[in-house]
Amino acid sequence: MLMAHPAMLDDLVDSYETLVALEARTGSPDARRRLGDVAYTLCVSTGTKDVDAALVAARHRLPGARPLDDSVLSA
């Protein structure tokens, strides 16, 4: 399976988190659509079927991830 570059995964995770916050505040159809698009791209990029699993998989591949507990060190 092809794996997405960590920089792309980092951008996708940041976009997802931003859109979650935006959708929660505005609830606009555009924010919901973009959130769905980013969630789908995260799933495809990580080979998962669920956005929560995709976020874990993406974060695991980011620089600073600890292999034993799937956490990410803060910078």
TrEMBL record:
It comes from the Bacteria. This is DUF5133 domain-containing protein. It comes from Streptomyces iconiensis.
